[in-house]
Design brief:
The complex is a heterodimer of chains A (198) and B (682).
Chain A (H helix, E strand, L loop, with lengths): L2 H5 L5 H11 L11 H11 L6 H11 L3 H10 L11 E6 L2 H5 L2 H12 L12 E6 L11 E3 L2 E4 L3 H12 L7 E2 L23
Parallel strand pairs in A: 1-2, 4-5
Antiparallel strand pairs in A: 1-3, 3-4
Helix pairs in contact in A: 2-3, 3-4, 4-5, 7-8
Chain B lengths: L2 E4 L2 E4 L6 H7 L23 E4 L6 E2 L10 E3 L3 H16 L15 H9 L22 E3 L9 H9 L5 E4 L6 E4 L12 H5 L5 E3 L12 E6 L8 E7 L2 E7 L12 H5 L13 E4 L2 E4 L2 H12 L7 E5 L5 H13 L5 E2 L29 E5 L3 H4 L1 H12 L3 E5 L10 E4 L4 H6 L4 H8 L3 E6 L8 H16 E2 L2 E2 L1 E4 L5 H6 L7 H10 L5 E5 L13 E6 L11 E4 L9 E3 L5 E3 L13 H11 L9 H11 L40 H5 L1 H18 L4
Parallel strand pairs in B: 1-5, 15-16, 15-24, 17-18, 17-20, 18-19, 20-23, 24-25, 25-26
Antiparallel strand pairs in B: 1-2, 3-4, 3-5, 6-9, 7-8, 10-11, 11-12, 13-14, 13-26, 21-22, 27-28
Helix pairs in contact in B: 8-16, 8-17
Classes of the chains: A alpha/beta (198), B alpha/beta (682).
The complex binds FE2/S2 (inorganic) cluster (2 copies).
The site of one FE2/S2 (inorganic) cluster has 13 residues of chain B, from loops.
Keywords (chain B): 2Fe-2S, 4Fe-4S, Iron, Iron-sulfur, Metal-binding, NAD, Quinone, Translocase
InterPro entries (chain B): 2Fe-2S_ferredoxin-like_sf, 2Fe-2S_ferredoxin-type, Mopterin_OxRdtase, Mopterin_OxRdtase_4Fe-4S_dom, NADH_UbQ_OxRdtase_75kDa_su_CS, NADH_UbQ_OxRdtase_ferredoxin, NADH_UbQ_OxRdtase_Gsu, NADH_UbQ_OxRdtase_Gsu_4Fe4S-bd
GO molecular function, one term (chain B): oxidoreductase activity, acting on NAD(P)H
Chain lengths: 198, 682
């Protein structure tokens, strides 16, 4: 029995299958390449964060040194090392979002939830954080909540969304201003006519 | 063989090397921090930027392989600016606390800042600070100084073979650390101190005791094991402050073990600095003449057959020869050089040497270890084996299964396996047969049992069958004592070995026993026997001694040692022996004078001449000899049974190490991590 097992973490049956599915993507002997998806699966199984025990469990599982797992898990900001609330609210604060008002978004969330960056609400529902570019700049400002992106936000809309989530209502992720994905809002502004090839 | 132009000079270099190495060959200096020729390439410090024609921006020369027709410039304005820029970035978060930094004066960062940096600093914001890490009793950390070259991480992973270090977090928050702040589980950990190009990792026991420019360096040889690592002994006044490695490609490359580096504080503790004579059961301080007189009185009328001598693990050849000659003059030929009782046979020189040499391990393609744990018996050799394993060597082991930091096929801890290998009916036999350059290394543990001589014979027969071929002698013996090969060359072997000497002493058949730094035997049997101890420390040897003659340690004399390969090397005197202590051979000569038959050498040079006559092999310095193969060991039954490890604790193998506070701290620290691993702690 490995040290981690003694301390309690062990794959659920489904997650074990999922882990094996990821390991199988890599050539024999290169199972270590699956460390990132496995950390993610473990983080989800553990309710949102990874622990030393989990990192050691994965190190054992992939037959790699524990420090190498820890290096990966600390390098990427998607892995949390402290317990987080049920919904992880991450506000993008990088330049495009910032130019489009991410400061106001953040302030609105802080005021609405009564917490600051890095904190979790008393009811354990929300943890607030700021991240660098979420990769959806065209729809700035952007906030990710759990696995979903909420884009084209206004301070009012983001508080609404938080309330809906709190009340367990369905919210549609994506642009919040009615546009379709990243298509222009309203009329076409360029490439307005379709030109047949001569 | 590509040809490239470096700063206008054409040079043809080997294929596959890097631009940085090519520059070195062309005699052009390129600054660097992360690059190290014995570690993998990281390319993360960017200090080695040079201009390559046709490249849009400067290239990291340490990571760029050479190509035909490359034109490299290292002295353009752009290169100068690039270096200044990198330097400036490196210094942004560096605390610049040089006046209180132990690296000061021998710091790459300092030197390169002077040579390649800007004169001023434009950074006015606050610097980051990083919490220091606990890296045990040997390595002191100031992590704010770290520039993230990752040399220590690469060293521990690649060379030491313990993946205990890494870098956590990212960007501004990057921190180099050991796993969960534990100590490095390695006998080679101290080398990260030398590798660290800044003052982040420094020598903890040496911390704040000296500035590097106050030290006088003496090139010498280590005696903590039988490797003969090349060292530099740094002393200030009468005190040895620290020990550093010296480069020797065929012996220790540029590494030394932690014992070699850190046991030197034991040179100051528990030292014998004046003669003692036991009067009415109590040891009392005495003058040299009183001590000699006491010996003379006791020896009067004693027959040669009633006198014996035992030589310890740290003795140099000059001392051993003088010791042998002195006892010879007293009529005794009974001098034992194998304190541990190993059944080494000195009939055939090849029989007690590591014939292929340490670097020869890299030529081997299969290695069978018999009763040896090289990781603690000779960490440097273990490191070499690991290096060879990484490039294809396969290793098998008969004996205790230990973590040697590389993959080992364990055949089991049973001597009887040797019989099966000789008869060819064993997996190890197949492997040896298949190998082109098979090697077998036998350790002292295998030779110390009742059937030691038979084990030696069995190993010899295996070697004879598989490992000795045209131009290749793959047989090797791994010694643990610096003195051992020399003692064998001097013929210091007796029938029945050290056990019989001790038995005869307790049976009163021996009336006088001389110990030359012999501290690893149980001297309780010498209680009744008149015992003269010549040595350095108040250790086991003095427990039952009647006369104690204080001698010089390896840093305090020039002495000849022959390492486990048969390589002859000399220590040099770095400091004077403390108090009244004298160099061993001068003590023996003075004593012979008092006893009425003076040894025929007045100077060290004359003694060396005598040594060269007694042991011609001792003449040729620093080469691995080619010795004729022959028959050795004693045919006999090799009984089934395990092999006892010869070293119980790596950190406590000799009187200097046992006197060292640092070494005992290491013992505690290692016990702590061992305790955690098995869950027996707390
Ligand atoms: S800057 Fe916010 S998504 Fe890119
Ligand atoms: S030496 Fe080339 S990048 Fe560090």
């Amino acid at each position: 029995m490995s040290t981690a097992e003694k301390k309690g973490f062990c794959w659920t049956k489904e997650n074990e299958a999922l882990a094996q599915h990821h390991i199988a993507k890599y050539p024999e002997g290169r199972q270590q390449s699956a460390v990132m998806p496995l950390l993610d699966i473990a983080q989800r199984q553990n309710g949102g964060h990874v622990t030393v025990e989990i990192m050691e469990y994965i190190a054992d599982y992939l037959d790699m040194p524990a420090i190498r797992v820890q290096e990966v898990a600390t390098f990427y900001t998607m892995y949390n090392h402290r317990p987080i609330g049920k919904h992880h609210v991450q506000v993008c604060g990088t330049t495009p979002c910032w130019l489009r008002g991410s400061d106001k978004i953040l302030a609105a969330i802080e005021a609405h939830l009564g917490i600051k960056k890095g904190e979790t609400t008393a009811d354990g529902l929300f943890t607030l954080g700021e991240v660098e570019c979420a990769g959806a700049c065209v729809n700035a400002p952007v906030v990710s909540i759990g696995d979903d992106y909420f884009e084209d936000l206004s301070p009012e809309r983001v508080t609404e969304i938080l309330d809906m989530i709190k009340d367990g209502k369905d919210v549609v992720a994506g642009p919040q201003n009615g546009r379709q994905t990243s298509a222009p809002l309203g009329e076409l502004t360029s490439l307005t006519e379709f030109v047949e090839k001569a | 063989m590509p040809t490239l132009t470096i700063d206008g000079k054409e040079i043809e270099v080997e294929n596959g090397i890097t631009v940085l190495q090519a520059c070195e060959e062309a005699g052009v200096e390129v600054p660097r921090f992360c690059y190290h020729e014995r570690l993998s390439i990281a390319g993360n410090c960017r200090m080695c930027l040079v201009d390559m024609e046709k490249a849009p921006k400067p290239i990291a020369s340490c990571a760029m392989p050479v190509g035909e027709g490359m034109v490299i410039h290292t002295n353009t304005e752009r290169v100068k600016k690039a270096r200044e820029g990198v330097m400036e970035f490196l210094l942004i978060n560096h605390p610049l606390d040089c006046p209180i930094c132990d690296q000061g004066g021998e710091c790459d960062l300092q030197d390169q800042a002077v040579a390649f940096g800007r004169s001023g600093n434009r950074y006015e914001e606050s610097k980051r600070a990083v919490e220091d890490k606990n890296m045990g009793p040997l390595i002191s950390t100031t992590m704010t100084r770290c520039i993230h070259c990752m040399r220590c991480v690469r060293f521990s992973t690649e060379v030491a073979g313990v993946t205990d270090m890494g870098s956590l977090w990212r960007g501004e928050h990057t921190e180099v650390t050991t796993y969960l702040g534990k100590i490095l589980d390695s006998e080679m950990s101290g080398n990260v101190i030398d590798l660290c190009p800044v003052g982040a990792l420094t020598n903890k026991p040496y911390a704040f005791t000296a500035r590097s420019w106050e030290l006088k360096g003496t090139e010498s040889i280590d005696v903590m094991d039988a490797v003969g690592s090349n060292i530099r002994v740094d002393a200030r006044g009468a005190a040895v402050m620290r020990v550093l490695p010296r480069l020797h490609e065929d012996v220790n490359e540029e590494w030394i073990s932690d014992k070699t580096r850190f046991a030197c504080d034991g040179l100051k503790k528990r030292r014998l600095d004046r003669p003692y004579v036991r009067r009415r059961g109590k040891l009392e301080e005495a003058s040299w003449s009183d001590a000699f007189a006491a010996i003379k009185k006791k020896l009067k009328g004693m027959k040669g057959a009633e006198i014996a001598g035992v030589v310890g693990d740290l003795a140099d050849m000059e001392s051993m020869l003088a010791f042998k000659d002195l006892l010879g003059k007293l009529g005794s030929k009974r001098i034992e050089g194998r304190q541990d009782g190993a059944a080494i046979d000195n009939a055939v020189r090849a029989g007690y040497l590591l014939n292929a040499g340490i670097s020869g391990i890299e030529d081997a393609d299969y290695l069978l270890l018999v009763g040896t744990n090289p990781r603690v018996e000779a960490p440097i050799i273990n490191t070499r084996i690991r290096k060879a394993v990484l490039s294809g060597l396969k290793v098998g082991n008969v004996g205790n299964a230990e973590d040697l930091t590389y993959a080992v096929e364990e055949f089991g801890d049973d001597k009887a396996i040797l019989n099966a290998i000789i008869s060819g009916k064993h997996a190890a036999a197949d492997a040896l047969k298949k190998a082109e350059r098979p090697m077998i290394i036998v350790g002292q543990g295998a030779l110390t049992g009742e059937d030691g001589a038979a084990v030696l014979k069995a190993v010899r027969d295996i070697a004879d069958t598989y490992c000795v071929k045209d131009g290749w002698n793959g047989y090797g013996m791994l010694h643990t004592a610096a003195s051992r090969v020399g003692a064998m060359d001097l013929g210091l072997v007796t029938k029945g070995g050290v056990d019989s000497i001790l038995d005869d002493a307790s049976a009163d058949k021996l009336k006088a026993v001389f110990l030359l730094g012999s501290d690893e035997i149980d001297t309780a049997s010498l209680k009744k026997t008149f015992t003269v101890y010549i040595g350095t420390h108040g250790d086991e040897g003095v427990q039952n001694a009647d006369v104690i003659l204080p001698a010089a340690a390896y840093t305090e004399k020039s002495g000849t040692y022959i390492n486990t390969e048969g390589r002859v090397q000399r220590t040099e005197k770095a400091v004077f022996a403390p108090g009244d202590a004298r160099e061993d051979w001068t003590i023996l000569r003075a004593l012979s004078d008092v006893l009425g038959d003076t040894l025929p050498y007045d100077t060290l040079a004359q003694l060396r001449d005598a040594l060269a006559k007694a042991v011609p092999a001792a003449k040729t310095l620093d080469t691995v000899p080619t010795e004729a193969w022959g028959d050795f060991g004693t045919a006999g039954d090799v009984a089934s049974g395990g092999i006892a490890p010869t070293i119980e604790n790596f950190y406590l193998t000799n009187p200097i190490a046992r006197a060292s506070e640092t070494m005992s701290q290491c013992v505690d620290a290692r016990e702590d991590i061992a305790g955690e691993a098995t869950g027996t702690h707390g």
